[in-house]
From TrEMBL, chains A, B:
<dbReference type="GO" id="GO:0007165">
    <property type="term" value="P:signal transduction"/>
</dbReference>
<feature type="binding site">
    <location>
        <position position="89"/>
    </location>
    <ligand>
        <name>Mg(2+) 1</name>
    </ligand>
</feature>
<keyword id="KW-0378">Hydrolase</keyword>
<feature type="binding site">
    <location>
        <position position="210"/>
    </location>
    <ligand>
        <name>Mg(2+) 1</name>
    </ligand>
</feature>
<feature type="binding site">
    <location>
        <position position="90"/>
    </location>
    <ligand>
        <name>Mg(2+) 2</name>
    </ligand>
</feature>
<keyword id="KW-0479">Metal-binding</keyword>
<dbReference type="Pfam" id="PF00459">
    <property type="entry name" value="Inositol_P"/>
</dbReference>
<dbReference type="InterPro" id="IPR000760">
    <property type="entry name" value="Inositol_monophosphatase-like"/>
</dbReference>
<keyword id="KW-0460">Magnesium</keyword>
<protein>
    <submittedName>
        <fullName>Inositol monophosphatase family protein</fullName>
    </submittedName>
</protein>
<feature type="binding site">
    <location>
        <position position="87"/>
    </location>
    <ligand>
        <name>Mg(2+) 1</name>
    </ligand>
</feature>
<dbReference type="GO" id="GO:0008934">
    <property type="term" value="F:inositol monophosphate 1-phosphatase activity"/>
</dbReference>
<dbReference type="GO" id="GO:0046872">
    <property type="term" value="F:metal ion binding"/>
</dbReference>
<feature type="binding site">
    <location>
        <position position="68"/>
    </location>
    <ligand>
        <name>Mg(2+) 1</name>
    </ligand>
</feature>
<dbReference type="InterPro" id="IPR020583">
    <property type="entry name" value="Inositol_monoP_metal-BS"/>
</dbReference>
<dbReference type="GO" id="GO:0006020">
    <property type="term" value="P:inositol metabolic process"/>
</dbReference>
Length: 269, 269
């Protein structure tokens, strides 16, 4: 039985965190580089994750927490019990350079399996959540799964660096599709798959905080979320991921397996 | 002296057309393929262009009109006098598949030179216009040009097919930047350059209706809009285009000229 009290708390925390992020655009932010100039962390990434960690510690001290910024200093080494996974700002580069096109992602797992996922498209005031066994909601309204029948009749989403180097045989997907879109935030790209704006989301390597909420939302919508080898995702490590409805997910896995000559790439791609 | 009566009329026509496009999402649309399955035209592309052509004919019968859908049956072979350039729906594939991320673009030229440009981000209710010699406005508020100093500190925008095939040496730009974003509509990508969310918009081949409004808006903002060879754009033919502020535009032209080994492509690109 899903814990609706916990769910209600999460909704309030997400709203509070989103409002703080919107307000932070009014002032100059402290920004640091992580691995390189394109991999940024701001004071708001840290403050947002700290906020969630404190709330979880207060109400659910026995739960485990995985967060992008590592605010929780109790590393998770097994996924038994309840595990929270937090990405305080997905798309930090967009947050800094565009002041839009970023998301908050949060997910709840029980013994390694997804129970609920939350993605907040902050600047559009769009909150998506999925409860496994119940459904997916956009701003509390049920989202009907839109059944795309084939990749050839649809757009796909992923990042440009991946396509530019054909990483993970990604051009096999691109050439089969009507074209790709790249928003610079997994959060927004996953939303576009849930809404049926794109058939498939593909990435060659995502951290658990990047895929956990999407995995739970896919599960709740009856979509598939696996590695390209059709393996179950693993909360404890970086994984390549394919998200989509069962039909296009199967088609994507097949396409990614085939290494053939890449066809012509449409100019509108 | 700019014709503000004409400008006011255009604002009303853009609002009317945008409202019709939003309303059209409520019903099934007739959709046809042009060159291929990714190159669509809907009844709304045609209806919107027809609407503008009729209005222009009514008020300015002596003006020339270039439109994507060729509704005006009087082909333009020289650019003397006043020429209107219309893209009734830029991003038709998004319009069909996403019901968002598309724009209306319109521009006014005098003897081949831009006088005013209009881009309507329809679903976000954001109307941008630029009057050469006056400035650029977003929903009637002046837009201050945001001076990006170098491509290395910024995002760029363009289409994924171009980067995936390194068309026009585009990877030289991508690797120098913090990453690229691709929205599937020149209209939205040009807006992101005007707003300073991205440094440079690059395309290896745009039709006049795809670049005319962006050219006029760049001119009005003090930005540069040329071919990669620094040639003036030509309303009568397909051109490769580079848009950006003078600093990053010059840097982009230099980068696109150099054919060197492509550096590492960042995973966040």
């Amino acid at each position: 039985m899903f814990d609706y009290q916990m769910h209600s708390r999460i909704l309030v925390w997400m709203e509070t965190a989103a409002e703080e992020l919107r307000r932070s655009h009014q002032r100059d932010l402290k920004i640091e580089e992580k691995k390189n100039a394109a991999d940024l962390v701001t004071e708001m990434d840290k403050a947002t994750e700290t906020f969630f960690v404190q709330k979880i510690r207060e109400h659910y001290p026995e739960h485990q927490i995985i967060g992008e910024e590592g605010i929780n200093d109790d590393p998770v080494t097994d996924v038994s019990g309840t595990v929270w996974v937090i990405d305080p700002i997905d798309g930090t580069l967009n947050f800094v350079k565009q002041k839009k096109n970023f998301g908050i992602m949060l997910a709840i797992f029980e013994d390694g399996l997804p129970k609920a996922g939350y993605i907040y498209d902050v600047m559009n005031h769009d909150l998506y959540y999925g409860i496994v066994g119940v459904g997916v909601f956009r701003n509390h309204q049920i989202l009907e799964p839109f059944k795309i029948q084939a990749i050839s009749e649809a757009l796909i989403v992923g990042n440009i660096g991946m396509f530019a180097t054909n990483r993970g045989n990604s051009l096999a997907l691109l050439t089969q599709s009507l074209g790709a879109r790249a928003y610079g935030a997994a959060a927004l790209e996953i939303i576009s798959v849930l809404k049926g704006e794109a058939a498939v989301y593909y990435s060659c390597g995502l951290q658990p905080w990047d895929f956990a909420a999407g995995w739970a939302l896919c599960e709740a919508l009856g979509f598939k979320a696996t590695t390209p080898d059709n393996q179950t995702l693993n909360l404890l490590k970086r994984c390549p991921v394919v998200f989509g409805n069962p039909l296009v997910h199967a088609e994507a896995l097949q396409l990614l397996k085939e290494t053939k000559e890449i066809g012509e790439i449409n100019e509108n791609s």
